[in-house]
Amino acid sequence: MLITADSLVGFHRLIARPDDDDPDVVVVGRAEIGEFIELPAVYGEAIRLLREGLPVSAVEERLAAEQDVEIDVTELVEALTELGFVDSVDQDRLPDPGADASRSHFPWLTDRHVSWIFSRPMKLGWLLVVGAALVTLAVRPDLLPHYADFFWGEYVGLTVLVNTLMVSLTLSTHEMMHLMAARSLGVPGRIGFGTRLHNLVVQTDVTGVWGVPRRSRYRVYLAGVAWDLFLMASLTLLVAHVALPPLTKALFQALVVAVLMTIPFQLQVYMRTDLYYVLRDLLRTRNLFDDGLAFARYLRARTVARLRRRPCPVEDPTRELAPHERRATRVYSVFLVVGATVSLTAFALFAAPIAISALFRAVGAIVDGFNGGSVLPALDSGLLLLIEGAIQALFVVTFVRNHRHWFRWRRSADRGTSVA
Question: Which residues contact 230 (CB under 8 A, 6 or more apart)?
Fold first, then answer.
């Protein structure tokens, strides 16, 4: 690709908006590939002029005349090309990284279809339903969720199967709310599986949300939790005020407990949960998790170096951050380390032993069934193993897929081979 003074540059569909905090900075990005950068406003103006059809030299001359600044537009175009923003130079099409990007789910879904969900009347309706449920629980405390509500049936395997199906539908709707909130703002999204420490999660990739102002991003972050609260409130009102069949009532109460159990997970902001993104934007940081993790690693390296009485081999990764971002990152890194340690410790001391114990009990029940024991408990245990086994297998597959670099085979360098 040769860029000359007379070159005309064509761009893919770009988003350009003022920065949320600095009026002298613009955010430019391409939602289709999830790539966004911050540039001085003068570079944003250069991109605007190039998109209007001015050649490179004319853009430089105009900026010099109007803003009394000199910038290398050729260098800017080269940088934007590497990011995948440039479509053509002098009508010669360039390779498009977006061609290999994962396609957005439900591309036909637009703001025209979903904007009404986030309108003021709907928000008022949400407040009324949640408020009515809170009043109902205050008047009838016997309807407060209890762990025993989860076990509505005699057979644990069947109960877990039905509850898992109900929760799966709820989680799907939770993620669809994120997706619809993003689409109401013109942002693409993609739903898939991910992992958070030892947890398997369903997640929605809405990286393109960086193309909208901070205030609008909260809609996307909170849409899932808002749905969870609305669902629990609606089910509570139905159980309290509608004559339901006993089984239906029991299933509704079990679903309330199951959904309620997901709320504390969202509060674990030391993982990238929904509320983590809310916290990140409230603190006006760009990459709180990765910066906090990098600072924690720096502290570990510095501590080890001091114990060995050696200079620290790495520099403070927060030194180039803005003062407010530096403070937030350093405090967050403490919560990240403590929170992750507590979660993994609790998993090792409680969750893992409980799961292993349940596994052996289920296997024992199945063996008894084959040796003349009761058939129904054996079938129930087999069903439980099938469900939990499928979930754990999905976790392993998702973890390996998202961490391929951890599982690459590496040979020692003295064998004369390169790293795969």
Answer: 126, 129, 130
